[in-house]
Amino acid sequence: MTISTPDLTDAAPQARAIELQFTNYGALSQFAGAAVTIKCHEDNSLVKACVGEPGEGRVIVVDGGGSLRRALLGDMLAEKAVENGWAGLVIHGAIRDVDEIGKTRLGVQALGTTPLKTEKLGMGQRDVPVSFGGVTIHPGDYIYADNNGVIVSGEPLL
């Protein structure tokens, strides 16, 4: 499946573009799927739990508050996401282990990188609406990502 977010937004003007400059870090430069949402701040406990579940081609959307102080995804969690069938992650925050993640057959869009891991305190919320970059993403919304950006739709576009 080829994804072009510009073509999708041309064909479906109701699609909303996240107004942030994400960088593509995964080996897959294009990915799409239904959203599973996580809201957390410098604690990736819920991300770790989520990637351990069957992904079924879905996309994990993590609202880390835009923090670049602690990484919400590393190589081991990315590998676990691939093993369990997740299409990708969109992270409003930082990741680490970028060289290894770049070899992982997973879509990963994030704001930036840091070498520091998070504390695992079990903090955060899952399956709640998250808002960043001018867009609110609800669990079950459809996410489409490529090197042009990330778009969100309440209904499938492909």
UniProtKB/TrEMBL annotation:
Keywords: Lyase, Magnesium, Metal-binding. Mg(2+) binds at D97. Substrate binds at G74, D75, M76, L77, R96. InterPro entries: RraA (IPR010203), RraA/RraA-like (IPR005493), RraA/RraA-like_sf (IPR036704). It is an enzyme of class 4 (lyase). The keyword ATP-binding does not apply. GO terms for molecular function: 4-hydroxy-4-methyl-2-oxoglutarate aldolase activity; metal ion binding; oxaloacetate decarboxylase activity; ribonuclease inhibitor activity. It comes from the Bacteria. Its EC number is 4.1.1.112, 4.1.3.17. NCBIfam families: NOT-MenG, PRK09372.1. PANTHER family: 4-HYDROXY-4-METHYL-2-OXOGLUTARATE ALDOLASE 3-RELATED (PTHR33254). Catalyzes the aldol cleavage of 4-hydroxy-4-methyl-2-oxoglutarate (HMG) into 2 molecules of pyruvate. Also contains a secondary oxaloacetate (OAA) decarboxylase activity due to the common pyruvate enolate transition state formed following C-C bond cleavage in the retro-aldol and decarboxylation reactions. This is 4-hydroxy-4-methyl-2-oxoglutarate aldolase. It comes from Pseudohalioglobus sediminis.
